Amino acid sequence: MWIDDVPEGAVDATTGSPLHAQLSALLRAGIGDGSLPPGSQLPTEAEIQEKFGISRSVVRQTMAGLASDGLILRGRGRGSVVAPHLEHHRQVQRMPGLSAQISTVSGPVRTEVLTIAPGADARAAAALGTTRLLSLRRRRSADGEAIAIIHTWLPLSLAESLTAEELTDASLHALLAERFGVPVSAGRRQIRAVAASGQLAEELSVPIGSPLLLLEGTSLDDGGAPVEYFSTWHRADRVVFDVDVTAAEPQPNAALAGRVEELARELQALSSQLTRGAR
């Protein structure tokens, strides 16, 4: 059992750190590293009390915090179990956004508009070639919890008439194509690992400093003109990036290469015969 392998001094009142915080960190580490896999039964409150010599109130405070964060499921009479680990997969090399990709495999993704207004951003202005910008910040949720925050910058000349109502539970790319005849067909993406700031932590309902996957870049229309600059912060415990890979260069087929050379010689010989015959 997991608790049997944990040193008794792992929760220590003499360190000055709150006991519930120490116990929470211990259980979170077990869940995070797979020692407590999804669906596994957690030790009872009594077992935890006896193991670490702490009060029931400390144990209950810890369990309430883990349940609030969606890490465990509590049930009367059956104890607590580690919650199922929900993962949403996104192929970062594909143009369709998060809502289009996830909705095909795990139900619809909800989109909430947090802010939409004219704004200024130096990097977006450089990428889009204009300082007249529309700032759009949205929150994407799946299975009842926030999984991503998207901040998009658009040329004001293109998107000034967009409203929060039409962007709610909708795809921005689909709207650009349908309303303005601007299909998003190409772009460049970058991925970084970052820590959640205070604002992002609040918007995603995660602790400050939680790991996030940042996908950012510029999207182009079918004529190669930039139409959006965006940054999307994904919860690293909920979203997985999939990348399809192929060999950089196709491996040469020796037999085929030899046959091509043979055909080239035959064609050259035939051409010579035709030339002599024409004379």
How would you describe this protein?
By secondary structure, this protein is an alpha+beta fold. It has two domains: 2-82, Arc Repressor Mutant, subunit A, CATH 1.10.10.10; 88-242, 3-Layer(aba) Sandwich (Chorismate lyase), CATH 3.40.1410.10. It contains ten helices and ten strands. It has helices at 19-32, 45-52, 56-68, 98-106, 122-128, 156-159, 164-167, 172-180, 198-204, 254-278; strands at 72-75, 79-82, 88-91, 110-119, 133-142, 145-155, 184-195, 211-221, 226-235, 239-242. A six-stranded antiparallel β-sheet has the order 4-5-6-9-8-7, with helices on both faces. A two-stranded antiparallel sheet has the order 1-2. The protein has a two-stranded parallel ribbon with strand order 3-10. β1 and β2 form a beta hairpin. The longest helix is centred in the C-terminal third of the chain and has 25 residues, at 254-278. The N and C termini lie far apart (95 Å). This is GntR family transcriptional regulator. It comes from Homoserinimonas aerilata. Residues 17-85 form the HTH gntR-type domain. Keywords: DNA-binding, Transcription, Transcription regulation.
